[in-house]
Write a structure and sequence with these properties.
By secondary structure, the chain is of the alpha/beta class. The chain is built from 16 helices and eight strands. Strand 1 (69-76), helix 6 and strand 2 form a beta-alpha-beta unit. The longest helix is centred in the last third of the chain and has 26 residues, at 215-240. It is elongated, with a radius of gyration of 28 Å. The N and C termini lie far apart (64 Å).
């Protein structure tokens, strides 16, 4: 066995190392009883690298230090329940993926691959908060990588990371709040449609798309937007702190910039892609493990989601059509 070959009379350091190994073997049933001590070396606490250092032996495969693991979470799409079949990014849809990522063995870091033009501010906050909580609980660093766009709520997601990276051409920023909708008052008039709406509460039908817009309603909406904007600004200042280099009025105007410009302004920490940066930080042997969300069986079968998906009754198709248009407009705002 390996421990017998090391116990030479003329080499005290090796004898001591062998003695330590023998004691560990005796304490560990996996080693003592299996006849294959190399399978349990990691469980004994035996200093395996001491063998290579003291003997000059070449690297032995089973003595290799395990490759570090970086868990990868893809955050791709509009945030919130939007679009056909409510496929947007929400905490409910991502919670399991996030939890499983932080439970990976030999986890050294978590990388967020972000491609999002934004969306619902509450879901942006909830997702970011869950990632930060688990990162602090597990003492694991988080890195964010912007692909085409990490703007508005997409940039909010990036704030979950300790460091943010992007491509030179990525769209970054849009730290502001926007509300979208459609007005159909002229359309229903043209088609001779009478709108019947009955409410209890003066503002219950506020901003109804089939009634003329009221100035008081718009003022109320603006006050909500300003409050959300303050929270967004505070979030950026808290997570970026002294890294921010541009004037606040410019940073929080709702404008967006390229990755190169964002780096100069302190909105990101560097230019680079996920694989390259992770190899620099954790070595060429780093393993990138993408953790994907689990889908129900019926959603994996072609055609079933369109027929039996949640909230996909025939009367909902008009709603889905409008949601698809709205989703497309969100992406189009950034030229995508």
């Amino acid at each position: 066995m390996l421990h017998q070959s090391l116990a030479g009379d003329d080499y005290d350091p090796l004898r001591q190392t062998a003695a330590t190994y023998n004691k560990n073997v005796a304490r560990c049933p996996v080693l003592a009883n299996s006849g294959h001590p190399e399978k349990g070396l990691k469980q004994t606490g035996f200093p395996v690298y001491a063998l290579q250092t003291m003997t000059g032996w070449p690297t032995i495969p089973f003595l290799h230090k395990p490759a570090p693991v970086v868990g990868v979470i893809r955050l791709d799409g509009v945030i919130g329940r939007i679009g056909p079949f409510n496929k947007g990014l929400t905490l409910a849809s991502l919670a399991d993926t996030i939890e499983r990522t932080f439970r990976l063995k030999r986890l050294k870091a978590v990388a967020l691959s972000i491609n999002s033009p934004g969306g619902a501010p509450v879901q942006s906050s909830l997702i970011t908060g869950r990632i930060r909580d688990l990162a602090e609980e597990n003492e694991v660093p988080v890195y964010a990588f912007a692909e085409d766009v990490a703007a508005s709520g997409g940039y909010w997601l990036a704030l979950a990371a300790d460091e943010i990276f992007a491509d030179e051409k990525s769209i970054i920023g849009s730290i502001g709040v926007v509300s979208r909708g459609f007005g159909f008052t002229e359309l229903i008039k043209r088609w001779g449609i009478e709108r019947r709406l009955h409410t209890a509460g003066d503002h219950k039908a506020m901003l109804d798309p089939f009634t003329p817009e009221k100035e008081a309603d718009v003022r109320h909406l603006k006050s909500l937007q300003e409050d959300i904007h303050k929270h967004f600004e505070a979030m950026v200042r808290e997570h970026r702190g002294e890294k921010l280099k541009a004037d606040g009025k410019k940073l929080f105007s709702g404008a967006f910039w390229t990755g190169t410009q964002a780096l100069e302004m302190g909105l990101i920490d560097g230019i680079g892609d996920l694989r390259s940066v992770m190899r620099v930080k954790f070595g060429d042997r780093v393993k990138l493990k993408l953790v994907a969300g689990k889908k129900p069986f019926w959603r994996r079968r072609i055609g079933l989601s369109a027929t039996f998906g949640e909230g996909n009754e025939p009367g909902d198709w008009a709603v889905h059509a409008l949601a698809s248009i709205e989703e497309r407009l969100i992406w189009n705002r950034f030229g995508l």
